[in-house]
TrEMBL record:
Entries under InterPro entries matching the protein: AB_hydrolase_1, AB_hydrolase_fold, Epox_hydrolase-like
Species the sequence originates in: Endobacter medicaginis
Keyword tags: Hydrolase
The keyword Hydrolase belongs to this UniProt entry's keyword annotation: yes
Protein name: Pimeloyl-ACP methyl ester carboxylesterase
Record domain AB hydrolase-1: where: 27-258
Gene3D superfamilies: alpha/beta hydrolase (3.40.50.1820)
Keyword Hydrolase annotated: yes
SUPFAM superfamilies from the UniProt entry: alpha/beta-Hydrolases (SSF53474)
GO molecular function list: hydrolase activity
C-alpha cells in the first residue's frame, strides 16, 4: 500500500512527568483537520502526569512543513518523526482526520503501535462539506493590518460556528502581512484524499488493542461501519460518550480522558 510519498519531519510538543521519564511506550496525540498539537493541550496535560506524551502537528498544519496530504504519507510522517524522537513503539490516539492517520499508521506499521485509540471517525469516506469551506477560506482577502477581531469577522462570512472560527483564527498570521500560516492551498488540493479512505486489502489488519470513541450526537461513526472496523481491527472496543458530537474531546473532556486513561492503563 506504499505510494512512495516523501516523509516529512513533523513539529512535536512533548510533555512528561517530573523527574525520570517513565518506562513503557509513550502516548502520541494527533489532531484533526485544521487543528494543531496545542489544541490537545488539556488531554496532554492530564496524561503527562503518568506517561511521556508527544502531540504532533500533521503536515500542512500547525508548525509542521507543508505538503500534499494522503493517509499513506501521513503515516510515514508519523513513524519518521517518532523514530527521530526515540518514541517507538507508541500508543497512538487520533481524532477525526488524525484518527484516520493513526489507523493507517497501525495498519502499515503494526509493530510500532502498542495500542490504538480512534476518536469519532471510521475507516470510511467521511466527507461533510469541508472542501467548499476550505476553498472559501482560501479565497478570503484579509484587511491590512489584521487583528484578531477583524480575522474573526472575515471568517464569519464562511464559517457560522463561533467555536470553529476561534479554532481557525489560530491558523492566521495577524499584523501587516496577514495570511494563512498553515498549508491551506495543499489542504484544499488534498481534500478528496482527506475525506476518503483508501481500500485496504486483506492481510493488513491491526491486531493490537484498539478503542473507538464516538460522540452520541455525531453523524460520523455509524453501525454500518462496524463490519469494516471489525475486519481491520479485530480487537476493537467501542465506547459512546453521551451529550457529545464530533468534538467529543472538547465537549466532554473529563469523560474522554477517563476512558482514554482506563484503556491505556489496562492489562491485555
Amino acid at each position: 500500500m506504499n505510494d512512495g510519498s516523501t516523509d516529512l519531519r513533523l513539529n512535536v510538543i512533548e510533555r512528561a512527568p517530573e523527574g525520570d521519564v517513565p518506562a513503557g511506550p509513550p502516548v502520541v496525540l494527533i489532531h484533526g483537520l485544521f487543528g494543531r498539537a496545542r489544541n490537545l493541550g488539556f488531554i496532554q496535560r492530564q496524561l503527562s502526569a503518568r506517561w511521556r506524551t508527544l502531540a504532533i502537528d500533521l503536515r500542512s498544519h500547525g508548525d509542521s512543513p507543508h505538503g500534499m496530504l494522503d493517509y499513506h504519507a501521513l503515516a510515514g510522517d508519523i513513524v519518521e518523526t517518532l523514530a527521530v524522537h526515540d518514541a517507538l513503539p507508541a500508543m497512538i490516539m487520533g481524532h477525526s482526520m488524525g484518527g484516520k492517520a493513526a489507523m493507517m499508521t497501525a495498519l502499515l506499521h503494526p509493530a510500532q503501535v502498542e495500542r490504538l485509540v480512534v476518536a469519532d471517525i471510521p475507516p470510511a469516506r467521511t466527507g461533510h462539506g469541508n472542501s467548499d469551506v476550505a476553498q472559501a477560506m482560501l479565497d478570503l482577502e484579509f484587511p491590512r493590518p489584521l487583528d484578531r477581531k477583524s480575522a474573526e469577522a472575515a471568517l464569519a462570512a464562511v464559517i457560522e460556528d463561533g467555536g470553529t472560527r476561534a479554532l481557525m483564527v489560530q491558523n492566521i498570521r495577524l499584523g501587516d502581512d496577514p495570511g494563512w500560516t498553515i498549508g491551506l492551498r495543499e489542504i484544499v488540493a488534498s481534500m478528496s484524499n482527506i475525506e476518503s479512505w483508501p481500500y485496504i486489502p486483506d492481510g493488513y489488519a491491526y491486531t493490537g488493542p484498539t478503542l473507538f470513541l464516538r460522540g452520541a450526537n455525531s453523524p460520523y461513526l455509524r453501525a454500518e461501519h462496524l463490519p469494516e472496523i471489525r475486519r481491520l481491527f479485530p480487537r476493537f472496543e467501542l465506547e459512546t460518550i453521551p451529550d457529545a458530537g464530533h468534538w467529543l474531546h472538547v465537549e466532554q473532556p473529563e469523560r474522554f480522558v477517563a476512558l482514554l486513561k482506563a484503556f491505556l492503563e489496562r492489562s491485555f
